[in-house]
Design a protein that fits this description.
globular; alpha+beta; nine-stranded antiparallel β-sheet; two-stranded antiparallel ribbon; 29% strand; ATP Synthase, domain 1; 11 strands
Length: 244
């Protein structure tokens, strides 16, 4: 059984939910959230030709050595137990190479299969961002900003790609989300021209921080991304479940 927001759902429930969909985004945690709480992907032996029909998924999963590994998931699952999803892109492909992109801060992936269909369920404590290639959308801007910042963090590891990859695989998804917000907000606060150019984006992030503070989910101290992925500080710190 899958757990969806604390509610146990049987495999039949999920197959029923996905009957008319190739992929399905679970509801947002609140009205103004940048992303979704979960992503369901149905890979079928025979395409329905009624909607986007995923044939496979590309994403990063942690392997036995806790290292990120890019994997391709198809109709036949390659694992039975839940697997840890590393931060980064999740890309769905159909038979004509049409693609749908998402960005995740990390999470857990589960599967359930029938003879001619497999459903993959990605859920995360951080929002799952749907990438639409609309540079004006908040989720697109947030994903691109974070990918750029992570690239700069990786550069500080020099040739130690495995060290950075291990650090990325171990980071707490919610910590990564909060730290990313903090880093981007400070960057915009320090550059007036940048803040003016992306005022809608900056305002949305600031309002999200204020909301999290009001509900007690914004830590009193929060590092910047370069501190979270500092090659001289070992494993990244992890927030408590309450975020306090």
């Amino acid at each position: 059984m899958f757990a969806n927001n604390g509610e146990n759902m049987s495999g039949q429930d999920f197959f029923g939910k996905m009957e008319k969909w190739g992929y399905y985004l679970l509801p947002k945690s609140h009205a103004h959230c940048f992303g979704h709480t979960g992503l369901l992907v149905a890979i079928r032996e025979t395409p329905t030709e009624q909607h986007f029909d995923p044939e496979f998924i590309h994403l990063r999963l942690s392997d036995e050595d806790n290292m990120p590994k890019i994997v391709t998931l198809k109709l036949k699952p390659v694992f039975a137990r839940p697997r840890h999803v590393c931060p980064g892109r999740v890309v769905l492909y159909d038979r004509i190479d049409k693609r749908v992109h998402f960005f995740t801060f990390g999470g857990s992936l589960e599967t359930i299969s029938a003879s001619d269909e497999t459903i993959y369920f990605l859920h995360s404590p951080g929002p799952i961002l749907e990438i639409t290639e609309d540079q004006r959308s908040i989720p697109d801007q947030l994903a691109f900003e974070i990918e750029g910042l992570l690239g700069k963090c990786q550069a500080k590891w020099g040739t130690n790609d495995d060290g950075f990859a291990c650090c990325l695989a171990q980071v707490d998804p919610r910590q990564l989300y909060l730290t990313s917000l903090q880093t981007i907000l400070i960057r915009h606060q320090q550059h007036q021209a940048l803040r003016r150019r992306h005022f809608k984006f900056y305002t949305a992030l600031r309002q999200e921080k204020e909301r999290l503070m009001q509900v007690g989910q914004w830590p009193a101290k929060l590092p910047l991304l370069e501190g979270l992925f500092d090659p001289n500080h070992g494993e990244p710190a992890v927030l408590s479940p309450t975020g306090k």
